[in-house]
Amino acid sequence: MAEKKEIEGDAAAVERRPGYWRRLGEVWLVASKLGFTSFGGPVAHLGYFREEYVRKRRWLTERSYADLVALCQFLPGPASSQVGIGVGMMRAGLPGGLAAWLGFTLPSVLALIAFAAYADQVPASASGWLHGLKLVAVAIVAQAVYDMGRKWISDRALATVAIGAAAAALLWRNPLSQVAAIAAAGVYGWLAYRKRNEPSVPAAEAETHLPIGRRTGALLLLLFAGLLILLPWLRQAGGGQIAALFDSFYRSGALVFGGGHVVLPLLQREVVTPGWVSDADFLAGYGAAQAVPGPLFTFASYLGFASDGMLGAAVATIAIFLPAFLLTAGALPFWQAFRAFPGLQGAFAGANAAVVGLLLAAGYDPIWTTAVASAGDFIAVAALYAMLAYWRLPPWAVVVAGALAGWGMERLM
Hints:
Largest sheet: none
Strand content: under 5%
Number of strands: 0
Shape: globular
């Protein structure tokens, strides 16, 4: 009863603040604007958020925003979505976090469901432009591996961790291989790099304000962990296809560090291996996901629709983002103490290196092995990579170029 009273007290305290409903509406409108215009991936999203929330509207100070970004980088899940959720919560409590998530996510969800509804009627093997989307996926993952490698692999030891994680993913064909690789790399980083631990934001900084109490935060974290245990049991107990979908997408959202492209290998194992979605449809959808604004995790909406129609899309979307919501709301009240824990950044250094290795493995199989079958495909991938990495074209433009290249090659062959 005490916990329930605190939850209700947190919500009531937020709603009693002057202008609460106006602030909640503003959160929805601003997040929706960002959902329609935020192209370019998680790093670009953080830049859009800073411009809108900090510089233009002054909902947060620069230091509070940096504090929030630091926390979300350390949590599993889609970092940019978690930052948006956190801003919404700081502005209007838990309902504000929900409004921020819906506004930022819904445009790309609807776009990818529409794409899935059309692509499901056209065999991917007979469509040149869908093949072009697969080539785009090769180029985008290659760029992600390169950029993340430069950022997260700082020495030979971490490079070795990355190669080991890639080898484990390719040679040990088991859903647990990726989790085991990340866990082992985190333990290694904890032991090898713990003395390098430094707070990401000066410790003297004021605590991030959030109208959620620590007890409420603890309950949300327990719910996050409880679902990780309960959902596999429900699935094994005969919960049906929807329970299996929810379990697969919840686990993918809960166990991936780095967000964005990093979720690709987890989703591939969860939906392609059991035969819910074909390799060709998976890669076509991944390519299409690059052309829409908003978080890449909405790729789950496409996969859910391809597997089980509108119900599957709704289940997959909620399941993959639910861990991000629970973790952000649960961890924010504890962040000041959490970030100072010795060895934390060392553990993340090792885990991040493993993430690069897992993405490298996914870049080879299934992406390269499925998409690149000729010299023309290789040339197209090289050109698309150059557009991304050197010409700095926006991802949607590269997606259009890839689709046109695939269409053109089909006509010439």
